[in-house]
Design goal:
The chain is mainly beta. Helices cover 4% and strands 42% of the residues. The protein contains four helices and 37 strands. A six-stranded mixed beta sheet has the order 20-21-22-23-28-27. A hairpin with a 4-residue loop joins strand 25 (334-339) and strand 26. The longest helix is centred in the middle third of the chain and has 6 residues, at 298-303. The protein is globular, with a radius of gyration of 22 Å. The relative contact order is 0.17.
């Protein structure tokens, strides 16, 4: 994985806007966003201070409940195809993660972006998107481009090169009924550091390391268990996946102790992405070397038994194997997967793929061939670059993936998901050709006064790698983050809608 530039503590969170010549207004002058306070309880020793050894497995002193949250209810919004044309206009191009608040920093890479879940509606999102890169996390209102909050690692607690590569949201229930909740964001990266942030209060209330004795350990992927809001899966560069119970913080002190519950041994190299299917209780990992799923059985985790593992064997293209650099759930049973160098994106039903699996004598290890007749294929870039992550809106079935030219490939697959167009997702026939994007949003021509003032090369002089995309509920906004320190916000509508 390419490493972003190291970051130091900024005195204030700063938002810089970039004027765009394509009828896009620059961000209005707004007050500087609040810099998040760092109310951190450092537990560098990880679980060792809170655990006793028993039969080779640590026993947490804090009681762990190995049951689903009482307030959990599975819900998936029905597919709602958007009737409007798939036109998106650039709204705000922001430079929010700059090293030392340098307004002309075009080197810091922003790795992740994700919309905040709506605590009142589990199938929807708010208008706030979180982004992480360098040493900071930003929270941005996509409606007006305002950075409402910024967290920047302090030089007192962050070492040089301690960058953040992964993030994920969770809505923690504060009572059994889930009537009181709090949204938290976990962010992780170099030196196996994981941060827990409560943006509503503006505090980073917990920091711990998943591998305290290895300075080179890197957290590449994070996901919370959808049915157990405090359980955090952490995918590492060495292929290991750890499960931690981060606990529910006791307010107002935010006291909590993360507890290590499980380590899933490496079966491939880097764990690039993690996703989860609720209906199958399946944790899915896209790795440098394959696509794997683990059946998350609460009883087996409690007794430290091995979890059932399935390898999904995807076809090779031009001799290129399965380097899964992006995975996400289009719907709870439909997995979207992208293999580096394949030039296409695969979508398939987990249920159909799992029916075809075969196992060994242990009854624990399985594999299944995901053949062409099971998959919907989307045509994508033939780039030889890696690590460009997809984003989806399960409700509208809009899928977006950026490339290494700054462009966004937009797909509308609602008709394929519902079966209006017969295809393998609805157990129909295999299509003769890959599905084309409904739009390719090209990188706009930007006027960047700060870069010109610093006499730096234009943004588009080198490849602009779109590291991650996110799509808002209903497909109204697309957010993309790039290798040249840009947060790009696009809005659905005709070109005149983007003018001020």
């Amino acid at each position: 994985m390419t490493t972003a530039s190291s970051k130091t503590m900024a005195k204030k969170g700063v938002k810089k806007s970039v004027k765009c010549s394509k009828s896009v207004a620059a961000s209005k002058n707004k007050s500087t966003p609040d810099t998040m306070t760092e109310k951190v309880k450092r537990k560098e020793g990880g679980p060792s201070a809170k655990r006793m050894k028993a039969g080779g497995r640590g026993v947490p002193l804090r009681k762990i409940d190995y049951k689903f949250d009482p307030s959990y209810q599975f819900s998936e919004a029905p597919v709602e195809k958007i009737d409007q044309p798939p036109d998106f206009q650039p709204q705000y191009f922001l430079r929010t993660h700059s090293k030392n608040n340098d307004p002309a920093d075009v080197q810091t890479q922003i790795w992740q972006c994700s919309f905040e879940p709506d605590p009142l509606n589990t199938t929807s999102m708010t208008n706030v998107v979180a982004t992480c890169g360098g040493s900071s996390v930003c929270f941005i209102n996509v409606d007006d481009g305002e950075v409402v909050l910024k967290y920047n690692r302090s030089t007192k607690t962050a070492n040089s090169g301690e960058n953040l590569y992964a993030q994920v949201w969770s809505t923690l229930p504060l009572d059994d009924l889930g009537l009181k909740t709090m949204n938290v964001l976990a962010a992780g990266g170099a030196r196996s550091t994981v941060l827990l942030i409560h943006p509503e209060a503006g505090v980073c209330y917990q920091m711990f390391r998943t591998v305290p004795n290895r300075a080179a350990a890197v957290v590449c992927a994070l996901i919370f268990h959808p049915k157990k809001a405090t359980w955090l899966f952490c995918g590492h560069e060495d292929g290991q996946i750890q499960l931690w119970d981060v606990g529910t913080p006791a307010l107002p002190s935010y006291e909590t102790t993360p507890v290590h519950l499980l380590t899933i041994p490496a079966v491939a190299r880097d764990v690039y992405n993690l996703t989860f299917s609720c209906s199958h209780d399946l944790l899915i990992a896209g790795c440098d070397g394959g696509l794997f799923g683990w059946k998350i059985d609460m009883k087996k985790i409690e007794t430290n038994d091995r979890l059932e593992r399935t390898e999904f064997m995807l076809p090779e293209v031009d001799g290129n194997g399965s380097v899964l650099d992006s995975v996400c759930m289009l719907r709870d049973d439909l997995l979207a997967a992208k293999c580096a160098l394949h030039g296409q994106i695969y979508i398939f039903s987990l249920a159909r793929a799992l029916k075809k699996r075969t196992g060994d004598k242990s009854g624990i290890l399985f594999e299944t061939q995901v053949t062409d007749d099971l998959m919907l294929k989307l045509r994508w870039s033939n780039t030889d670059n890696y690590y460009m992550n997809m984003g989806v809106d399960p409700r509208s079935c809009i899928l977006v993936c950026g490339d290494d030219k700054g462009a966004l490939w937009v797909y509308d697959v609602a008709d394929y998901v519902t079966g209006k167009i017969k295809n393998p997702l609805s157990e129909g026939p295999q299509l003769s050709a890959a599905v084309e994007p409904v739009r390719i949003l090209e990188w706009p021509e930007l006027e960047d006064a700060e870069v010109e003032k610093a006499r730096k090369l234009r943004l588009d002089t080198y490849d602009i790698v779109v590291d991650k995309c996110a799509v808002s509920s209903g497909g109204l906004h697309i957010v993309a983050v790039t290798s040249n320190n840009m947060v790009c916000i696009w809005k659905r509508g005709k070109e005149e809608d983007g003018e001020n």
